[in-house]
Amino acid sequence: MSETEFDYIICGAGSAGCTVAERLSRDPSVTVCVLEAGGSDKSAIIRTPMLLQFAVTGEQFNWGYWTEPQKHLNDRKLLWPRGKTLGGSSSINAMHYMRGAKENYDEWEREYGAEGWGWDNALPAFKEVQGQQRGPSDLHGAEGPLSVEDITPLNPLTDAFFKAGDQLQYRRNDDFNGHRQEGFGPYQVTQKDGKRCSAADAFLRPALERENCSVTIKAMVRRIVIEDGAATGVEVDIDGTRAVLTARKEVILSGGAINSPQTLLLSGIGPANELREAGVSVEHDLPGVGKNLQDHLDVTAQIWTKSDISIGNSLRSIPRHAYMMGRMMLMGDGPAFVNPVQGGAFIKSAYADDLPDLQLVFIPAISNPHGIEKAWGHGVTLHVCQLYPKSRGEIRLKTTDPNDHPVIQPNYLEDPFDTDVMTDGLAKVREILAAPAFDFDRKSERYPEPGITTRSQLEDDVRARAETLYHPTSTCAMGSGELAVTDSRCRVKGVDKLRVIDASVMPRLVGGNTNAPTIMIATRAAAMIAEDNA
What we know:
alpha/beta, about 525 residues, single chain
C-alpha cells in the first residue's frame, strides 16, 4: 500500500463493506480504502453451490469462531463459521435471498427508535440493488447488481417436501419476499447463471474498476485512532506490517456482529468497567457495545431414504458425482451449480403471535452440523429455527490482540420461552417428514431417534443437537434504547466521524436470513454518508 490517506476507510469487505464501497466510490472526488482481514475469494469452492460445505468448513475461508460453553445446550461449545475472504459470509453462505417480514422493519422504528428504518424506507433499497430473474414487480427490482435466481431443477424429494406441507394443511408460497411470508415453497438464491453472486461480485468488483477505490487483503485492523473525540484513521497490520492510515472524512466499521464490537472495544469504546478490566484505556464509555447479541438457533429432523435420488454419498452415487465434477471442470455448468439447499417454509409454532415464528430449511441430503463430518448414505434433512428468540448474549474481549477471537456468549435458551418454541418446532418438522408424501422413499428415522417420543425427550434432543443458523446480529444496535450504540444514521454515539454499518446495527433480529437485510442497511447508510459529507 503506497497511499496512507483516504477520504473513507471501510474496515471489512463483507456484505456491508462491499456495498458501502460501491456506493461511496461513485463520487470521483473521494477516495475509498477497503481493508479485509481475510484473503482472496478466487476459488471454485466459493463459486460452485454444490461445494457449499467446503466453503463453510475450509479454514481458508472461515474464521472458525467458537462460542463459550452453553449452559442450556449441555455445556456444548458451538462453532460459528464466518467468512474470511472478500465478500465475507456472503462468500460461504447458502445464498438464500430473504428479507424477513416487513413488520420487522416497522418494529425497528416503532419500538427501538431507529427513525427512518420502517418498511416504506427499506423496500426501495431492497429493490434498488436486486437483480430479480423473474422480473420487476411492486416488491422486486430487476436491474440491480445482486442477482437473484430460482433454483432449478429441484430434487424430487424437495417436491415431496412441498406435498407434505399440502397434506398437513400448510399454505404454498412461491415468494417468501412477497406480500406474505407464511407457507411452503422454494428458496430464491443470490446466484448468477448458477454461480454464487457474493457481495464482492455484485458490489466490490464494480467499485474496484474505478480509480478511486482500492482493497487490501490480509489487513487486520488493530484499533481506531481517535483524536479529540473523533475517528481520524486506523492502526492496521497489513500482511504482518504495522501501519497507520488516515481517514479525512470517516471510518466505517463493517466487520459484522463479532468483529465490529471487538474493534470498538479494542479502541476503548464500550462499557468502561469492562474495558479497564481488559487493560484497555477508555476513550468513550458506551455500555451497549457487544451487548444485545441475538442469533437464530436451529435443530434438524432427518430420515434415511431407500433410493439414491437424494444428494448423497454412496457407491451408487459415484457415477453421478463423476459426471457432475467432470461437467463442472470441462463445461463450467451442470448439476454442481444447482443449489443443494432448496426448499423452505415459514410456519407458526404453538406460541406464535401474528407472524410465523419458525423458519424451515429443506435439504435433499443427509447432513451433519456445518458439514464438518461427511455424511454417508441417502436421506433428507429438515432444519427448523426460532425466528424471534428472547435470549440475549454478548461479545467481550478475551485479550487485547485483535488476532485473538473474542468471547462469544449467545446465552442460547436462557429464556425458557425459547426452549418451548424450539421443542415445538422440532415436533413439527418431525411430523412433516412422517407425512405420506415421503412414504415412497422413507427408510427409517435418523433424528430425532425413534425412541424419542415424549415432549421432555424432544426438549432434551434440542439441548443435545441444536446449532447456529449463522445469523448473529445486534451487538452495535441502532436506535434510542439504553443499549443503543449507533444512532439512526449508523453513527457511533459520542464519537465523531465513526460509523458501524453491518448486521450488528439491527435493533432486533429479523424473521429470516440476514444477508439481504445487511445489504439493504448498507445501501441506505452509504447514501446517508454521502449526504452528510456533501
